[in-house]
Amino acid sequence: MISTSGVTLRYGKRALFEDVNIKFTPGNCYGLIGANGAGKSTFLKILSGEVEQTNGEVHITPGERLAVLKQNHFEYDEHKVLDTVIMGYKQLYDVMKEKDALYAKADFTDEDGMRAGELEAEFAEMNGWEAESEAASMLNGLGIPTELHDKQMKELDGNQKVRVLLAQALFGNPQILLLDEPTNHLDLPSIEWLENFLAGYEGTVIVVSHDRHFLNTVCTHIADIDFGKIQLYVGNYDFWYESSQLALSLMRDQNKKKEDKIKELQAFIQRFSANKSKAKQATSRKKLLDKISLDDIRPSNRKYPFINFKPEREAGKQLLLTEGLTKTIDGVKLFDNLTLTVNKGDKIALVGPNSLPKTVLFQVLSGELEPDAGTYQWGVTTTQAYFPKDNSAYFDGVEMSLVDWLRQYSKDQDESFIRGFLGRMLFSGDEALKKASVLSGGEKVRCMLSKMMLSGANVLMLDEPTNHLDLESITALNNGLIDFDGTMLFTSHDHQFIQTIANRIVEITPNGVIDRIMSYDEYLESAEIKALRAKMYPEQD
């Protein structure tokens, strides 16, 4: 168990945390959420001892081992991959090294023999004889093949290093796990492996993630950072979000019968408690929703941007036709003879392990690149808005204020209208006067989404729009695109985003296109699709 008593962290006059008292118990997985800058990663560092709090204490049950997902991808460059994983259990690794050093001595003494015997006993007690096979099994589960296990870490690419460091944190069954964005750079099979691992994990997990599907699958509790405090809720992210929004509605609605709102909230709690598939808590532990009382549900003070795409005109039936599109970049053929018909109302998720073909297809369809062969034709009734993965060209070196930046894309040039629009996208007051060149990644995304909303387009093309966004903005964008009654093509690594928006899945593979009208979960679970993908990706056999 890990807990805090009176933990406070101040930077000058600013208090990031104030008198935080919280307890994290074994058998539970806690999703630590909060707006950008709320201090999620910093709180994990306080728990691990990497950052020292101003006041208060962190308590860990004596004898329990805590493991942290490391963020320094270069720390182990001179070590072998397999050794790096075993280093996650420092006591075991130290015993291994001391034991090996003793046996390597040319002048092995009786005293060395006694010490070696002690080490062998410790080694066996820590299950050391299984260490290498367990580490190898973890690496394979996370997509690091056996042929890489004896290579040095510096020989791996960035994505592979992240997976090795995740295996390091999980190795040796520590009693407490602190995971900061563990699904970053993981493909779907690796994320599923991690979800299954955590489902059977008996210790305490505290995780920061922007992946709502992951939080919904693994979390038994949500720890919400707001105004320097941390409030604990039973349930997963969806339960926290929907219940907090209902509670907020109850709090704001002073003129209607409170009894009706209370009944609505109570019915919601009961429905979530009874319906395990709705609760989506894939872990079999601690199904406590049925014990929640109305007093346990509190409104959230979190702010959500207002994202609402309204087409100015309705599109006709045929929106886009591509015939034989082919494009090669740097000698690599990204798509070949791509023929695709996009119909009215399609919400197409472009999926697949390689992001470059999808990005280049968007660049071709938006007119940024010319295809090597083939044609594409937009319907005469269509208007398109494009969200590029790399938006730096819209902001780098641009010294105008956000008001002036957004005015470029607005038919209504009135400053009060522009400021009102920016306010709904969480740029209120002096925030609207910031220079476009100094925006954070998330702020740039909100500006690009504002530009798209003002266009009134009836076709949206979005290339990984959830990158850099916090959970609140992702949720708002997700809901806005669900409500959008136009047509869209989009890419995302966010499972829930794809599942809740897409009605058609298109995968561009090295050997053709897979195109199905179905949900994302149906696509992933389909035996026919799995067999087809095996043919399309022969190198995976």
TrEMBL record:
<dbReference type="InterPro" id="IPR032781">
    <property type="entry name" value="ABC_tran_Xtn"/>
</dbReference>
<dbReference type="InterPro" id="IPR027417">
    <property type="entry name" value="P-loop_NTPase"/>
</dbReference>
<protein>
    <submittedName>
        <fullName>ABC transporter ATP-binding protein</fullName>
    </submittedName>
</protein>
<keyword id="KW-0175">Coiled coil</keyword>
<dbReference type="GO" id="GO:0005524">
    <property type="term" value="F:ATP binding"/>
</dbReference>
<dbReference type="Pfam" id="PF12848">
    <property type="entry name" value="ABC_tran_Xtn"/>
</dbReference>
<feature type="domain" description="ABC transporter">
    <location>
        <begin position="320"/>
        <end position="536"/>
    </location>
</feature>
<dbReference type="InterPro" id="IPR051309">
    <property type="entry name" value="ABCF_ATPase"/>
</dbReference>
<feature type="coiled-coil region">
    <location>
        <begin position="248"/>
        <end position="275"/>
    </location>
</feature>
<dbReference type="Pfam" id="PF00005">
    <property type="entry name" value="ABC_tran"/>
</dbReference>
<dbReference type="InterPro" id="IPR003593">
    <property type="entry name" value="AAA+_ATPase"/>
</dbReference>
<feature type="domain" description="ABC transporter">
    <location>
        <begin position="2"/>
        <end position="252"/>
    </location>
</feature>
<keyword id="KW-0067">ATP-binding</keyword>
<keyword id="KW-0677">Repeat</keyword>
<dbReference type="GO" id="GO:0016887">
    <property type="term" value="F:ATP hydrolysis activity"/>
</dbReference>
<keyword id="KW-0547">Nucleotide-binding</keyword>
<dbReference type="InterPro" id="IPR003439">
    <property type="entry name" value="ABC_transporter-like_ATP-bd"/>
</dbReference>
